[in-house]
Write a structure and sequence with these properties.
- The protein is built from 11 helices and 9 strands.
- The chain is an alpha+beta fold.
- Strands 1, 2, 3, 4, 5, 6, 7, 8 and 9 form a 9-stranded antiparallel sheet that branches.
- A hairpin with a 2-residue loop joins strand 3 and strand 4.
- The longest helix is centred in the N-terminal third of the chain and has 19 residues.
- This is AraC family transcriptional regulator.
- Keywords: DNA-binding, Transcription, Transcription regulation.
- It comes from Paenibacillus helianthi.
Length: 304
């Protein structure tokens, strides 16, 4: 039932809210009104791991980002994320990533970070609110032009699927792929969001992609199971909806944007689609950015 998805999401929120002083299982269970055993059982059922392992993985992953992005002492990072000593952090780091914190700081490389679990989705929210009447007033999709410079894209291209759900259901591990790309977030092409999905076209067939855009001169490591492709500079038509409530409005926002994006005639703006050698992008960051579909275009030829 959706109730347990919501309850486990509360537990996830408590954990991620302060990884150094996570409330005890007993405290969580008392606030939720269920036994510690039942809370633990449901957490494992929905996340695939024990609460203890989840806390450990999130602590070590957040510590990795601190090592990568700050000059804080390793001891201070250890204490910040609940490790008893620098040695304890080092043991955990080596166990998780096969590299010491010091070595990782000196030469960051792609590692499988543990991402935040999301088990309460818009689907569960709609079930919960199905008996409540709610009038939704969404604005129309905005249409604008954006130029994205030549860049490289690191990720996975799957010609057998054409949307987000199919992609993760076709043998790609969402946690592993997303966690590894998160460890590369400092390489994100300036002006872009980081982890990005989208569509590409191969021999007339539409496929789905997921990865991260990086600078044209990136020559670092490519994670196992991923590829890198060069994407030429292009103008894009951006079909955009500003930030919204993910749980309440995600489905409607995506339908509103995509209905316009896939039916729009760019000739009204003096363009034509240019998707043969380029790819479409899908930006989805509800609370911080919003939702957008980007399709590459080129100017219509000038008639004599």
């Amino acid at each position: 039932m959706y109730e347990w998805n919501e309850m486990v999401q509360f537990m996830v929120d408590w954990v991620d809210g302060d990884l150094a002083t996570v409330p005890s299982l007993l405290t969580m269970s008392e606030q939720l009104g269920y036994s510690p055993y039942y809370c633990t059982k449901q957490f494992h059922s929905l996340t695939g791991m024990t609460l203890r392992d989840y806390i450990w993985q999130r602590r070590i992953s957040r510590a990795a980002l601190e090592l990568r992005d700050t000059d804080a002492r390793i001891l201070d990072i250890a204490v910040k994320f609940g490790f008893s000593s620098q040695e304890a952090l080092t043991r955990a780091f080596v166990k998780a990533f096969k590299i010491t914190p010091y070595a990782y700081r000196k030469a960051p490389r792609p590692i499988p970070l543990a991402i935040r679990s999301e088990v309460f989705s818009p689907y569960h929210y709609l079930i919960k609110e199905r008996d409540k009447m709610r009038q939704v007033h969404l604005q129309e999709a905005e249409i604008k032009i954006e130029r994205i410079p030549a860049h490289k894209f690191i990720g996975i291209w799957d010609v057998e699927v054409s949307d987000y759900g199919q992609f993760w259901g076709n043998g790609h591990d969402c946690d592993e792929v997303s966690g590894t790309l998160e460890s590369m977030s400092h390489h994100t092409l300036p002006g872009q969001l980081g982890q990005t999905a989208g569509w590409f076209y191969q021999n007339g067939q539409k496929g789905y992609l997921y990865g991260i855009p990086v600078a044209e001169d990136y020559n670092g490591e490519i994670p196992e199971g991923m590829q890198v492709r060069e994407i030429p500079e292009s103008e894009y038509l951006v079909f955009f909806h500003p930030p919204f409530d993910y749980l309440k409005d995600n489905g409607e926002v995506m339908r509103t944007v995509e209905q316009v994006a896939w039916s729009y005639n760019p000739e009204s703006m003096g363009y034509q689609w240019d998707e043969d050698s380029k790819q479409d992008y899908q930006r989805h960051f509800p609370e911080g950015y919003g939702y957008a579909v980007l399709r590459p275009v080129k100017k219509l030829p000038i008639e004599d």
